[in-house]
Write a structure and sequence with these properties.
TIM Barrel; alpha/beta; about 15% strand; about 350 residues
Length: about 350
C-alpha cells in the first residue's frame, strides 16, 4: 500500500511507535519471494532478527467463543510450560525474533506466569512484544504489570459492538468487564506515559459484520490504535456462518465505510479484502513458512525440533535448512497444502 493510505499524520506517528507494521509495509514493497527468502537465509546466518514467535504457554481458554474450536471440537490441554522451560525456550528462540506474541489460539491469561513471558521477551530485547487476549481474566493490577514490563501492544478480541452479539458469540464473556478493562488500560496508559498500543481483533461473520459500522461509537473513547478485521475461518467452531458470496458486496461496503472512520480517528485498519473466503493461495506462503514460528506445550515450531536438547540455530543446522531454502530460491518446488499459519498471516491490507 502507498503512503497515501496510511491515514494521515496520526497514523504515521503510530507507525513510528509500532515498528512491526512499518516492517510489514516494507515487506509488501518487495515483490520477489526469491529475494525475501535470500534475505531470510542471510539473516539467519548472520544472527539477525527475522521471524515472529506466536506462543501459547498453556493450551486452554476460559471462554467458548462460538467461532472458535474451543466451543466444540477442541478440548483444553492440561499441559503447560514450566517457568524453567520458558527460560530455555526464550534463550533458544527469542534472540532472532522480531516479534513475540503471547497468545495465539488459546488464552494466555490462564497461565499464571503470562506477564513473565512478556518480561522474558523483553529480556532478550525482542523489538515488538504483544499479548493477545479476550481480556476477561485481566485485572487492573495485571495491566499495571504489563505496562511496567514495557509491553508494546495489547490486543483484545471483541466480536460484537452490542452486548447481545458480544456475549452470544463470545460465550462466557461479560460486556461490562470488557469495557472496564478497556477503560482501565486507557486510563493507566495515559497516567503512566507508556506507549503501549491497543489493538482490537474483530472476527467477522454473517451475523456481526454490520456492527462494525458502530465500532467507534462504542469503542472509540478507549484510544484504539489498530483495528483488525478478519473474516471467520472454518476451524471447527459451532457457529461458522461465513461471509458468503451473497453478502460479500455488503461486507466490502462496510469495510469501505470503516476505512474512512479509521482515517478520521487516526486508527490503523488491517482488513482482509483480498481473500475473505480463504480459498486463494497466499502468494507469501513460502515466506510465512520461514517467518511464522508457533510454540505451545504440544509442539515447539516443528515436530522434529528437540528444543530441550538443542537451540533453534542448532536445529536448523542439523536439518540443513539453509541449503534446502537456497534450493527453493533457485529451483521450483512442490506447493504444500494451505495451512492455518498461512491463513492467519499476511492476509491483511493496511488502510
Amino acid at each position: 500500500m502507498g503512503e497515501e493510505k496510511s491515514g494521515g499524520k496520526g497514523q504515521l506517528e503510530y507507525f513510528k511507535m509500532v515498528q512491526i507494521y512499518r516492517l510489514l509495509k516494507v515487506n509488501r514493497m518487495i515483490k520477489s519471494n526469491r529475494i525475501k527468502l535470500l534475505l531470510i537465509v542471510m539473516a539467519q546466518l548472520t544472527h539477525k532478527r527475522y521471524y515472529s514467535v506466536r506462543i501459547d504457554p498453556v493450551f486452554a481458554c476460559n471462554l467458548r467463543c462460538r467461532m472458535c474450536y474451543f466451543s466444540k471440537s477442541r478440548k483444553p490441554s492440561s499441559s503447560k510450560f514450566t517457568l524453567e522451560e520458558l527460560k530455555l525456550l526464550a534463550k533458544s528462540i527469542f534472540p532472532q525474533a522480531l516479534q513475540v506474541m503471547v497468545g495465539c489460539g488459546a488464552e494466555p491469561t490462564m497461565y499464571k506466569n503470562f506477564v513473565k513471558v512478556v518480561k522474558l521477551a523483553k529480556l532478550h530485547n525482542v523489538p515488538h512484544v504483544g499479548l493477545v487476549t479476550n481480556g476477561q481474566l485481566l485485572s487492573g493490577e495485571n495491566i499495571s504489570d504489563l505496562l511496567n514490563a514495557e509491553l508494546n501492544e495489547l490486543t483484545i478480541s471483541i466480536h460484537g459492538t452490542c452486548k447481545e452479539t458480544y456475549e452470544h458469540l463470545m460465550t462466557g464473556a461479560k460486556w461490562d468487564k470488557i469495557h472496564f478493562i478497556l477503560n482501565e488500560f486507557n486510563k493507566q496508559r495515559k497516567r503512566s506515559g507508556f506507549k503501549t498500543s491497543l489493538r482490537v481483533n474483530f472476527t467477522a461473520n454473517a451475523d456481526n459484520y454490520t456492527e462494525l459500522a458502530n465500532f467507534f461509537d462504542v469503542f472509540g473513547k478507549y484510544g484504539v490504535n489498530t483495528l483488525q478485521v478478519r473474516p471467520v475461518m472454518d476451524i471447527g467452531g459451532e457457529n461458522y456462518n461465513a461471509i458468503s458470496p451473497e453478502i460479500i458486496t455488503k461486507y466490502y461496503n462496510v469495510i469501505d465505510s470503516l476505512k474512512a472512520e479509521c482515517k478520521r480517528n487516526n486508527v490503523l485498519l488491517l482488513a482482509n479484502t483480498q481473500n475473505p473466503s480463504y480459498k486463494k493461495r497466499n502468494p507469501l506462503s513460502s515466506i510465512i513458512e520461514e517467518t511464522y514460528k508457533y510454540v505451545s506445550p504440544e509442539m515447539v515450531i516443528a515436530k522434529d525440533f528437540e528444543w530441550q536438547k538443542e537451540t533453534y540455530s542448532q536445529y536448523l543446522k542439523r536439518t540443513k535448512w539453509a541449503g534446502k531454502t537456497l534450493r527453493k530460491i533457485f529451483h521450483s518446488y512442490k506447493k504444500q497444502p494451505i495451512e492455518l499459519a498461512e491463513k492467519y498471516s499476511s492476509q491483511y491490507d493496511f488502510f
